[in-house]
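User: Could you go from structure to sequence for me? I need the amino acid at each position, not a summary. Structure tokens:
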């Protein structure tokens, strides 16, 4: 088994990406711990989140939406390279663990994922967020609830909408189907762009009683 980035032999084949390539991945400079966007304040939370607090509590990403992760996500989603899921999930888990060391994060009570638009699910055959979330839940030794959330089938795909349209579209886009009283939730997605989708989901999760929502993704688009 060889590293999927540099093609060098792996001492631990199941990792998928060698330690050197992990070290060489693009790193964020100082980012807000809540929205994972760059900021210059001395505090962990940026002025944007102070002015308009999102419904989620913390957002952790591996890198910006740039290569090499951008290319790997593209291969996973559009070329059906589902064997990449474990290696990519490991990067997400490592990012969460590193933040845990700094912020003393607690393990979530359950792990879930952003549901895929039904047309995309039918055409693709899988939900990439679900593929990433499953091994993370296993490594955390926590319940995995891939169908905790549903996406309304009549709504338009976010990818095809403008920023203003996206905000309006997500308000009634998701439903949560479980009582989450006194439970903390880890929400998994591959890419966070505007944050509108995860904000709408986090709102639903908290309406159902979730005490906290921590979002973990591979890439955060810096707008």
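Assistant: Here is the amino acid at each position, in order:
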């Amino acid at each position: 088994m060889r590293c999927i980035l540099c093609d060098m032999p792996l001492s631990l084949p199941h990792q998928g990406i060698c330690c050197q390539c992990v070290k060489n991945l693009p790193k964020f400079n100082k980012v807000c711990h809540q929205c994972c966007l760059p900021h210059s304040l001395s505090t962990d939370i940026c002025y944007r989140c102070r002015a308009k607090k999102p419904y989620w509590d913390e957002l952790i990403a591996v890198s910006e939406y740039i290569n090499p992760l951008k290319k790997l996500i593209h291969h996973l989603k559009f070329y059906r390279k589902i064997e990449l899921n474990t290696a990519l999930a490991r990067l997400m888990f490592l990012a969460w663990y590193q933040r845990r060391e700094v912020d003393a994060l607690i393990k979530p009570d359950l792990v879930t994922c952003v549901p895929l638009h039904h047309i995309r699910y039918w055409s693709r055959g899988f939900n990439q967020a679900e593929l990433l979330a499953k091994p993370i839940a296993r490594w955390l030794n926590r319940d995995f609830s891939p169908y905790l959330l549903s996406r309304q089938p009549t709504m338009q795909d976010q990818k095809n909408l403008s920023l203003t349209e996206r905000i309006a579209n997500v308000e009634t886009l998701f439903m949560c189907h479980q009582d989450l009283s006194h439970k903390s939730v880890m929400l998994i997605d591959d890419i966070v762009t505007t944050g509108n989708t995860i904000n709408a989901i986090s709102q639903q999760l908290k309406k159902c009683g979730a005490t906290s929502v921590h979002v973990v993704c591979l890439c955060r688009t810096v707008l």
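One structural detail worth keeping in mind: The mean pLDDT is 91.
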